[in-house]
Amino acid sequence: MPTYHEILTTDLSTLTTAAERWDGMAKDFNKQETAYRRDVHGITLLPTFAGESQQAANARFGVRLTEFQSAQTEAKAIASLLRETHTQFVDLRKKLESARDDAIAKGMKVSDQGVVSYDTGKLSPGERQELAHDPDSQESVRKSVASWQARIDQCVKDVDDADKGVEVAFTAVVKGPDMGDGTVPGFNGKAQGDIDKYEAQEADDIARRVAKGEKVSAADLAELRRTFRDNKGDKTFSQTFLDGLGPDGTLKFTNKLEDLAYFDDTKNKSTYLEINGGLADSLAVATRVPDFKDSEGRHLPFGTAAYNEAFQAWMKTDDARFYNKWRAALREHGDDKYALEAAGDKIPVGYGQGQKIRGYQSLATLMQQGHGYSPQFVADVADDMIATEKKDPKIWDLYGKFSNKDGDGWFANDPVDGTLEVMSRNPEGATGYLDPGTAAGKERLDYLLGHRDWNIIHTTHEGAKTDYVGPDVEDSDARKGFGDALEAATTGQAPGGYHPVGQHTEPQARILQHTIDTLNSVNQAKKLPTNLTLPLAHILTAYTPDTHEINAQSDSRFELPPGNTGSAWSDKNGAHITVARDSLTKLMRGIANDPTAFGHVYAAEQHHAHDLLAALPQDADKTVISNRITDCSRAMGAYDGVRADIIFGERFNKTQWAADFNHGLSSSLSTALMFKPKNAEFLGPAGDVASRALDLYTYESNKEHIAEANLKATQDNVKLYAAGQHDVENMVRMWGQSRGNDINSDWTKQYVHVGQQDYNYGRDRALDVLRADR
Predict the structure, then answer these.
(1) Whole-number pLDDT of residue 561
(2) Annotated region Disordered: where (predicted)?
């Protein structure tokens, strides 16, 4: 392994000097070929030379002539390898030098052997004394030194990986054919001047042996790990390696790695998973589609008409040859059956014993371990999977459950859902894929929301004498990937958390608009499908200004008759949804089945209402103030109508529900500022005083909700529902106090009365929707 000192002091120019000499050698062989062809091989072509002796001489001389030609090819390849080695090493040395210089700039010393230490010589005597007596400072220095040492060590390791790759290439480039005469092999007429291709060929050989179940040495596995590390992000290596294996070989290879990691050789699990991750990343690199730009150099978003036009043009180029070939081959093998122990051994006896999986299930499992996939490739794979299952809706069905709860969540038994999870990592790609503004996007969204068969688990039941097959059911992680993709597509952000209110694009708003309308049309809004509840809660927090206006109905642009569908539209604050209030109410009710999630959504409305009041000018007209309080109170009443339907519906453990709801409400306090929209001119910063008012208001609200949950659930209690009214009272009083007003003044009482009336109106409207829908 090259040392730090060797890397920085070795004269790399000798590599280019050697390359020039090998080029010269190729020229010399060319001269010898010309002379040999003329003076030796040419004799066998004379008309005076005939018979068996001529044939024998011609064959022998022809071999020698070919050797002169092969020698030229090999010499040129070696020259090319030397130049590539020089380029690699110069680049890697620059990175090491940069790491060293950065460390020194941050107060470190780096020895000639690459050892990092803290440079106390730059400190004043006082600073050195303070450091010597301050354990916290010493720990900080220790961590800093360790961090810089790790960076420099990694740079040295990168050079070692590259050096081993060079060794692989130079070992292979001189391997010529057996001459058949017991002498040394001939020159390599197929020599290549590309290190990556030789590394890919060796990795391909090891991968094939792994896929066949042959015993592979630890050294070979280490070489695979090194090769993937050394060629991370390299398109030539990735395409050469995958082209050699082909989709069928790739799927067998990844399956065998999974078998080894999870069943056959678990003590080396990390090794196999690292190799599989390298394979997945290579697939991402090999299938990467260019970042298309318009005539002015601006990025073309995936899924737009301009992007699609650029992509179709690219598909006809040589650069797209691998992409087209591999996608076609994946379609060929996507429904093929493969062995995987996670499925085959899932059921030891009876139905499902020895069951096999499909190629697309292996592909989705592999892709989930990779990074940086082009949205186009993920979309194309998802479309191909959907086309496959439309021909055979039961094609993915297996016996046994495959989720994290069952210990096999790593296996994508639902490949469509697994691929959608990969898609969610690129929000732009998810938006372009699901946008109902395009015919393809609408068809996909409709299919996933209302028409797809998500029941892919075969069940069995124990009978008197034998087991019998039961109905198919959903896996416990059904729609997890779809929920992630939906969240990313509608918010433009990574899924899995609550999002700040921000401007949305029309495609993002269209997807949410269509989702709410579709869930209502298929009667799934109030009882949301598995694993969509939390993503939709995350989404609604980002659209709180829109849901606020829909519930308040103070803006005609947000108002629709019950049951009607509207469309997304835009203004200076971005794109907005326009759904009927009853449709939104039913969706909120569906989210409320997860009380913690509903607590977050409720808190988002509280924060937004507070911000709207805080944004009122000090000299605001009374009518303006009254209208703003009316809007906020009606919106809050709608949320409390949902809460009332649950607590007084006798369908839940109401005390537990209220506790979980308050947990969601309380945990949102620390993120209050996340709900302030960006670039929304009609809102202003709440300020410290207003923020303290919000804290007090929410604290009082929590107490009221818990107390009310313990009341006897009767219709009389519904009429006497007081917590929400107190929410409004607290909101108005705390806001007024933040403006310096007496909380007991007639002025404050008047606005409290206005708010409570409109709160009742908003709450009763929501309850009417939910009761009528029973």
Answers:
(1) 73
(2) 116-140
Q: How far apart are CA 242 and CA 236, in angstroms?
A: 10
Contacts (Cβ under 8 Å, ≥6 apart) of 5: 112, 113, 114
Instruction: Specify whether the CB–CB gap between 514 and 439 falls below 8 A.
Output: no
pLDDT at res. 686: 38
The string of pLDDT tens digits covering residues 535-591 is: 999 999 999 999 999 999 877 777 777 777 788 999 988 999 999 999 999 999 999
- Distance, CA of 560 to CA of 580 (rounded, Å): 5
Residue 507 and residue 303 in contact, taking contact as beta carbons nearer than 8 Å? yes
Pairing of strands 357-358, 569-571: unpaired
pLDDT for the residue numbered 729: 74
Q: How many CB atoms lie within 10 A of CB 744?
A: 9
- Phi/psi for 460 (5° steps) reads -130, 155
Of 153, 158, 193, 157, the closest CA to residue 173 belongs to 193
**C-alpha dihedral over 91, 94, 95, 98, to 10 degrees?**
-160
Question: 704 vs 287, 320, 410, 709, 728, CA distance in Å?
Answer: 57, 63, 44, 9, 12
pLDDT at residue number 684: 37
Report the relative pairing of strands 574-576 and 398-399 from DSSP bridges: unpaired
Query: What is the helix (H) or strand (E) element at residue 55, kind and residue range?
Result: helix 52-105
Domain boundaries, the chain: 4-173, 195-286, 288-496, 506-772
Separation of alpha carbons 265 and 1, rounded Å: 29
Task: Write 215-224 long-range contacts (CB < 8 A, 24+).
Answer: 221/268, 221/271, 221/275, 223/164, 223/168, 224/275, 224/278
Contact 347, 408 (CB under 8 A): no
pLDDT of residue 478: 95
pLDDT, tens digit, for every residue of 424-443? 999 999 999 999 999 999 99
Q: How far apart are the C-alpha atoms of 584 and 642, rounded to whole Å?
A: 11
Alpha-carbon distance values, 632 to 612, 742, 758 (Å): 8, 21, 9
Q: Which residues contact 231 (CB under 8 A, 6 or more apart)?
A: 165, 196, 199, 200, 237, 238, 282
The DSSP code sequence of 472-526 is: EE--TTTTHHHHHHHHHHHHSS-SSS--------HHHHHHHHHHHHHHHHTT-SS
Collect the ranges in the chain with pLDDT lower than 70.
39-63, 178-184, 463-466, 649-655, 665-726, 740-748, 774
User: Which H or E run includes 367?
Assistant: helix 359-367
**pLDDT, position 673:** 37
Q: Are 582 and 517 in contact (CB under 8 A)?
A: no
Question: Length of the chain, please?
Answer: 774
SS3 content of the chain, % helix, strand, coil (to 5): 65, 5, 30
Q: What is the pLDDT of residue 167?
A: 87
